[in-house]
Amino acid sequence: MVCAHFNSLQEAYLGNLVALKHQPGAIELMDDIIMNCTKENIEQRKNRFFIQGDPKAMLMIEFARETPEEIQAIATQLEADFRAAGLGYHFPLVLGDANIKRVWALRTAGLGLLSNIPGDKRSVTVIEDTAVAPEYLPDYMDEFDQILGKYGLSCVKYAHIATGEIHLRPLLNLKDKADVALYHTIAREIAQLVKKYKGSLSGEHGDGRLRGEFIPFMLGERNYQLIKTLKQTWDPQNIMNPGKIVETPPITENLRYLLGQTRELETTFDFSDQKGFLRAIEKCNGSGDCRKSVAIGGSMCPTFMVTKDEDKTTRGRANILREFLSRSEKANPFDHEEVYEVLDLCISCKACKAECPSNVDMAKFKAEFLQHYYEIHGIPFRTRLIAYLPLLNHWGRMMRPLTNFITGTSTFKKAIGFAPERQLPRLSKLSLRQWYKRPIQLNGQGKGKVYLFADEFTNENESDLGIKAILLLNKLGYEVGIPKHVESGRTYLSKGLVKKAKKLANKNVQKLYPLIGETSPLLGIEPSAILAFRDEYPELVDTSLKNQAVALSKNTLMLDEFLASEFEKGNIDASLFTREKRTIKLHGHCQQKAVASTDPTKRMLEIPENYTVSEIPSGCCGMAGSFGYEREHYELSQKIGELVLFPAVRQAAPETIIAAPGTSCRHQIAEGTGRRALHPVEILYEALKC
Ligand code: SF4
Ligand code: SF4
What we know:
Elements: E1 2-6, H1 9-20, E2 26-31, H2 32-37, H3 42-45, E3 57-62, H4 68-84, H5 97-115, E4 122-123, H6 137-150, E5 155-159, E6 167-172, H7 177-196, H8 208-211, H9 215-219, H10 221-234, H11 277-282, H12 302-307, H13 314-327, H14 337-344, H15 351-355, H16 362-377, H17 381-387, H18 389-396, H19 400-407, H20 410-416, H21 432-437, E7 449-452, H22 456-461, H23 463-475, E8 479-481, H24 490-494, H25 498-512, E9 522-524, H26 527-530, H27 532-535, H28 537-540, H29 546-554, E10 556-558, H30 559-568, E11 582-586, H31 590-595, H32 599-605, E12 611-615, H33 634-643, H34 645-651, E13 657-659, H35 663-673, H36 680-686
Parallel strand pairs: 7-8, 7-9, 9-10, 11-12, 11-13
Antiparallel strand pairs: 1-3, 2-3, 2-5, 4-6, 5-6
Helix pairs in contact: 6-7, 13-14, 23-36, 30-32
The structure holds iron/sulfur cluster (2 copies).
GO molecular function, one term: iron-sulfur cluster binding
Keywords: FAD, Flavoprotein, Iron, Iron-sulfur, Metal-binding
InterPro entries: 4Fe4S_Fe-S-bd (IPR017896), 4Fe4S_Fe_S_CS (IPR017900), FAD-bd_oxidored_4_C (IPR004113), FAD-linked_Oxase-like_C (IPR016164), Vanillyl_alc_oxidase_C-sub2 (IPR016171)
């Protein structure tokens, strides 16, 4: 891929014509607004590796040829042609799938970040896929800019320039009467401009309700009447898609927002950076990327992948939430069972937070909604039981054998509404803290001190993993402390008891902030618990603790992230590990994928020189905390597991190690496939030579 840098958009439109002569597979345009959006984003900064200076426009020109030599030759010739035409200033050739994906990721993310602009002005779709012949683009875009400039507007420009189609989205506030009028004016004037250049008002997305009003103008009255006759002949009762192509009402009718529609809602999470809860929900722009199928890949949205129902998509949930919260006539707009029902099947996997172009975080919205809903209707018994599990485990430990026996019986599971097929997590013989208090020598060897977060799941149910993490760190030279803290709050967050989670977050920040720093990080091994510090705490704690929570989040890491980074700094010696060959298949945890990354886990697992790791392209495992344990959700949970994860695990050779950092994922894999998945820390610990 040649990433041609230009000093102006006009140069890029002309450069497109030069590039087309070389028969590329694709040419995409990205303007400086999109590129600038990626400058402040931690993740996307890494993907700006190919950008030099501050280009006003970039063409990403992709070639597919038989040999690297052909690619090199074509790139050299293309650069020579650009320079001869006096267009552009820098033409790096990006090679290899991984790097090219990073370039595309930057473009996609830039657009998503644009949708995240807080407030009521949004980059609206209305003229977003006009297309004219590429040779007309320079003149067409010049006139286009004049029309927008006349109204004091500008817009982002990106996408499929090779075919003369550029996505154009002006920023407008469709809750404002004047902007709604402008919306219509611009649509009409751009339609006239497109017709002048013999183009298409909708080069890709279809006409529908947005462009239907202009079809008579674009095609001419006679052709429009023919279309109407066709429609009346085949659909005399106007059943199919009424009002979409013929008899379409003006675009200013049936708009998503009511004029002047703003409603400030008091929330427990802090949504102020998005100017309130409602505006955070309104970030959903309806693009429909959350209707992915397994074949398309990605994880969003697993409940749609299984059911194929719109109300099981992130979009469906966002639409229902927005409609009820903004238009409810009840004193408390959260008092709607319909919303509760639609959110019930959201498994809070956070795939939308990572993959939705607007980063809609439905798990957070659901938690916030449930808090309000329960304040009106009370907290159901099972919800309370799951949320307070850390406390119940603590008490249950006093009679551990009896607790393990009772929770293993079908009668108990049925009584509390759990699926009898499920095996509930058992209490470990000693909690991690009990083990840690024993008189054992745990000093490291001068590589500094780290703190391990004894999360509620590891501490009570899988203390062996915590012990292995401590012993591994010790062996690698680190001193490990378990600081005083309370539970992460994950069980409360997942059940919508946000106020209780807030209290815990406050306590943890107060206790840990003075202790944790760059040279003494807080490490965790259960992603859902440790990542609460990075994902939820900064928006959950009291305002007075926000800065401390943000500072703490920067030094809170998954153990995988810490060890991978230490290895890369040369602080860990690979010769401490076995040289045996091992193949590992990794199933990443949802929250890890949304808030952190699975890359450090892969890098950590490959510290032993002959360990090879590949990631299963799975989304959520389907267990999603307590979701898959709940009787009415059991079947859906299994179906989600069957999408990708279970078949991949079943197909893995018996000697292949299955790795999964999440405790729920390991349970789900065991019950869905009969295979035992290991925590990555366990795998690395077992790989130590002695
Ligand atoms: S939730 Fe995200 S992906 Fe789904 S329609 Fe809304 S903006 Fe698009
Ligand atoms: S959190 Fe997961 S299940 Fe819920 S809407 Fe987002 S992608 Fe779908």
